[in-house]
Write a sequence for this structure.
């Protein structure tokens, strides 16, 4: 029902092609920052220009407060605040585009018990595939420690990995894999929410 209410109209008004994709990014977004937007925008640009995919839209799925509180010890923000600030970042950045790509912030996880990323992706993938649309899951390379690059085909069609400065991507990760795309963007390589929270903590403790 959630998908039907929020996304079915977006899909049905699009022209049909066999290379249609939707990009999904998930996380706490505590706090949301420019790197989150840069990651999504660069994924859209590269998929369309370099890989000839038709990106219908991008989705940020924001984790619920319970999970965020387990992961983030300080500088916590509630779900509505994280969602609102992420939407403001999108609006601010897209004002400079004549025809901006649609990027949505989903509240699907807000009132759910914890949903891990494989379960979340699979929910979207199963529905999108009914419309002949592929799901692209977008992550930072720091998540390779969970071996996502090995198991992602169980819950997504394609995987985009943004290389972070603290976690370089070995060539063996992408060897002979057409469904894994490695991207690098300066704003996503060195900027992350953990660093921002640590800066806030330093000011609070002065």
């Amino acid at each position: 029902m959630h998908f039907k209410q929020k996304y079915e109209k977006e899909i049905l008004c699009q022209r049909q092609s066999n290379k249609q994709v939707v990009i999904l990014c998930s996380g706490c977004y505590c706090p949301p920052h420019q790197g989150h937007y840069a990651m999504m925008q660069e994924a859209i640009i590269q998929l369309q220009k370099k890989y000839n995919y038709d990106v219908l839209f991008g989705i940020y799925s924001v984790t619920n407060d319970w999970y965020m509180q387990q992961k983030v010890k300080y500088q916590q923000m509630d779900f509505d605040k994280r969602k609102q600030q992420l939407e403001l970042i999108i609006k601010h950045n897209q004002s400079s585009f004549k025809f901006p790509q649609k990027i949505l912030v989903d509240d699907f996880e807000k009132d759910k018990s914890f949903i891990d990323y494989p379960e979340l992706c699979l929910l979207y993938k199963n529905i999108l595939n009914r419309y002949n649309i592929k799901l692209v899951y977008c992550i930072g390379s720091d998540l390779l420690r969970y071996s996502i690059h090995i198991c992602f085909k169980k819950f997504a069609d394609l995987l985009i990995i943004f290389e972070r400065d603290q976690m370089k991507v070995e060539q063996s990760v992408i060897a002979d894999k057409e469904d894994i795309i490695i991207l690098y963007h300066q704003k996503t390589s060195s900027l992350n929410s953990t660093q921002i929270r640590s800066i806030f903590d330093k000011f609070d403790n002065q």
